[in-house]
Design goal:
Number of helices: 4
Strand content: under 5%
CATH topology: 434 Repressor (Amino-terminal Domain)
Number of domains: 1
CATH class: Mainly Alpha
Shape: globular
Distance between the termini: 14 Å
Radius of gyration: 11 Å
Helix content: 55-70%
CATH superfamily: lambda repressor-like DNA-binding domains
Structural class: mainly alpha
Length: about 60
């Protein structure tokens, strides 16, 4: 699963918008959109925060909830 897919899956499981995820991660909605479309990849700091959100919400990183 790519980071683009992981980010979109996280949003879908949490039932939040791109704006809400952007707010949680301290980035802009444009940045989240670019990540989800595979145009950019998050920094290591943001990747760690994404992993923390997955773990905090008991979401399997490989897509098996």
């Amino acid at each position: 699963m790519t980071y683009a897919q992981k980010i979109k899956r996280l949003r879908e499981v949490l039932l939040i918008t791109q704006q809400e995820l952007a707010d949680l991660l301290g980035v802009s909605i444009v940045t989240v959109n670019r990540w989800e479309n595979g145009k950019y990849e998050p920094t290591m700091k943001i990747k760690r925060r994404i992993v923390e959100l997955y773990k905090a919400n008991h979401i399997d990183l490989e897509g098996n909830k």
